[in-house]
Automatic annotation (TrEMBL):
InterPro entries: Kinase-pyrophosphorylase (IPR005177), PSRP (IPR026530)
EC number: 2.7.11.33, 2.7.4.28
Naturally occurring in which organism (per UniProt): Thiohalocapsa marina
One MF term in the entry's GO annotations: ADP binding
Protein name as it appears in the record: Putative phosphoenolpyruvate synthase regulatory protein
Uppermost EC category: transferase
Length: 276
């Protein structure tokens, strides 16, 4: 079975795409051709999109599915009249919420991702710059300025997790890769130990690590399963000695790992750094 899916919005479409993907993930037996359609903010563009939806219907033999965040009722009416299954993601929530609050909605498009709080936007940019400048342990002396520090072996997911926490939550995340020199010494540098109270460790299954490293350096000693098993075993010994929270990235997404880290941050009064 194949169906075409459109993520449609008057603005960026990020909300429609994010929620739409979450809903589609429940139907893994269906093949979805996903089409991203932001800035459908005129009746002319909406009409043109209905023509595309009709072509998709004839090609697939089933109505295309439309996930939309469309506050303009005139444009929404055009899309609903097209040959599609239309799901308005705001419709079922805005009016009931308005009734509860006793305040009418603004019905302005793009507010979900607009810079409505300049100070928080500035903090996010600062956090992104910090994460990039303190990636891969290049400035261990800067760990004291971080909100949190991720440690783990090479290719265990530290960099993408750091950047995700910076971009989405304005957290100054640094990361430190455990190196061969650290393994030979059997310990981590003093600057890393000093950040232990705000440290989180990432581990990964050796087979998964082997597959990831093979993509980067195929056939190398660095990517060998023996080396991966060795690195993970010694790193986990370090994590236990340091008594830091450890998360397995083998089968968890960046979002899932980040959510667990945030929960730990919020539950620790000494680390009251959550900035959202």
């Amino acid at each position: 079975m194949k169906r075409t899916v459109y993520f449609v919005s008057e603005s960026t479409g990020i909300t429609a795409e994010t929620l739409g993907h979450s809903l589609l993930s429940q139907f893994d037996t269906v093949e979805f051709e996903q089409v991203y359609m932001p800035y459908i903010n005129t009746e002319l563009r909406a009409t043109a999109l209905t023509h595309r939806m009709h072509e998709a219907f004839e090609r697939d033999g089933g109505r295309p599915i439309v996930f939309a965040t469309m506050l303009n009722q005139d444009i929404a009416a055009i899309l609903k009249a097209g040959n599609c299954y239309y799901l308005e993601l705001f419709e079922g929530f805005v009016e009931p919420l308005s009734a509860e609050l006793g305040v009418p909605p603004s019905r302005e498009s793009g507010r979900s991702h607009a810079i409505t709080k300049p100070s928080y936007y500035t903090k996010r940019i600062d956090a992104i710059n910090f994460a990039m400048a303190n990636d891969d342990g290049v400035r261990p002396d800067n760990l004291k300025h971080a909100d949190l520090v991720l440690v783990g072996v090479s290719r265990s997911g530290k960099t993408p997790t750091s950047l995700y926490l910076a971009m989405h939550y304005g957290l100054r995340a640094a990361n430190y890769p455990i190196t061969e020199e650290d393994f030979e010494k059997g310990d981590l540098p003093a600057e890393v130990w000093s950040a232990r109270e705000k440290m989180f460790a990432l581990t990964i299954d050796p087979q998964r690590l082997h597959a990831i490293r093979e993509e980067r350096r195929p056939g190398s000693e660095y990517a060998s399963i023996r080396r991966c098993q060795h690195d993970i075993r010694l790193a986990q010994t370090m994590f236990r000695r340091m008594e830091v929270p450890t998360f397995d990235t083998t089968n968890q997404s960046i979002e899932e790992i980040s959510a667990q880290i945030l929960r730990n941050l919020k539950s620790n009064p000494a680390l009251a750094v959550h900035r959202s």
